[in-house]
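[scheduler] slot 2 assigned
[scheduler] job type: sequence-to-structure, two independent chains
[scheduler] chain ordering preserved from manifest
[runner] begin chain α
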Amino acid sequence: MGGGKALVFVAGQVPLEDGQLRFIGRVPTEVSLEDAQAAARLCALNILAQVEAAAGLDKVDVVASVTGFVRSAEGFGEQPQVINAASDLLADVLGDAGRHSRAAVGVSELPRGVSVEIAAVFVVRT
């Protein structure tokens, strides 16, 4: 029997919903902190969808790491509060397997102007 483990790398997911980008702009001047948190949750849902397609959520052993990027206005330093929304969602969905190390980084630009982008690495059973 297998019993092995593999890594699933999920490239940066943006707040895409029904084929449409949401939450465009810098936090907090163009996108509120609350909306940025909603964007982070949407990114996390998209990450989970990618893992489900690649391996199945039932095979997740642990979320190894999450890296969140927040398109930030000058002087904004609450990136962890934004990415907490994604971290909380992963823990809610995956339980103890959803606990992870994390980085929350402020950046000046993200693809197509989105406010949040999140990448993750999962350990899955094969």
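[runner] end chain α
[runner] begin chain β
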Amino acid sequence: MAFDLVLRNARLADHGAASATVDIAVAAGRIAAIEPRIPGNGESVDAGGRFVSPGLVESHFHLDKSRILDRVAPLPDRRATDHMMRTSAVKHTFTVEDVYGRASATLEQCVLNGITHMRTHVEVDPNVGLRGYEAVERLAKDYAWAIDLQLCVFLQEGWTNVPGAEANVVAALKRGAQVVGGAPRYDADGPGQIERIFTLAKEFDVDIDIHGDGGYTTHDMMVWKVCDLTDRIGWGGRVAIGHGNKYSCLPPAELEALGRRLAASGVAVTVLPATDLFTSGRHLEHTVIRGVADANALIAQGANCSIATNNVLNPFTPYGDSSLVRIANLYANVVQRGTAEDLSECFRMLTDRPARILRRRDYGIAAGNPADLVVWNARTPAEVIATVAQPLMGFKRGRRVFTRELPALHRPDLPPPPPQPSP
């Protein structure tokens, strides 16, 4: 039988490290068969017995404000918390071409790290208008060969207290934004902003992704209101909260209760370890809180969670190489999850679980699904996370989009060993 591609000797997650490998045949961009030793012609690529996964899913990112560290004011001191103010001060300088250039460089890094789906938040505050949205909208079309981009439109710097700001949100929704979000923490009326987000989501039939529950106090968490509104309009499975630093400050019984409530309402949580670590505990001089929610504990109660990058090289997160696996390894270190099952769950928080948040019903390695595949320099999902394994090649709808060569040691020529005396 003729196939466009056969990826041979692939090891799948549900087969285990010691199991036999399979071949994955691709036709017309979709997986046609998964069997041992598939006959047929067409391109043949040997995975060499390595672990093969579906493409990674980046469920919370900010392409539009990546790579701006070189233009913002430096931190006035190590414990400063003016990340938003420093970002806001330069947003008026963003142009469509500027955002496109920075975002495309970041997006290409993401692709090279095995990401094939992304939800990116785009700010439309009055000081930037729709320029960032226009740039990322164009980026989604230009890079559709490598990655599927889902745009979430939101206001970072306030909504109910900023006259005219909502008009930009509505304009982006009319242009096709699939998700609406917000940052109630920076609004004079945070609860009012949340109400408005849900109203617009229902009006435009879009999903919701809110930056929420940053900080360290637990008496004022917005998650309960979000769950209530989700139940009220029947939006279960279509709502996510990003950050959730406050959840890391809950005692175990309260964290378990939160997990059950999230599960019942169908509200997901995306943990953002790099940003949450960098911004948390700045009021403390010692014994600093981590601020990274234990997503594994929420999952144990039936909730859906993902791990994501959030920012790269900006005031909120002044580092990053767009490696989602590195972020997951950081998360596992911080929340002290180290068993094979824990680390496998971390990998699921980069794949199956965020795919559910993005409502990708055709995701995964199964016959009929798009052939979005990544070959890892590892044998299991847990090993990928534990070793920060590199992706060696990636495919989008059956077409190879990147290849990474394995490093090799160049050993010096050694003289032959001296002859051994006869016994």
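[runner] end chain β
[qc] chain β: The chain is about 30% helix and 20% strand.
[scheduler] slot 2 released
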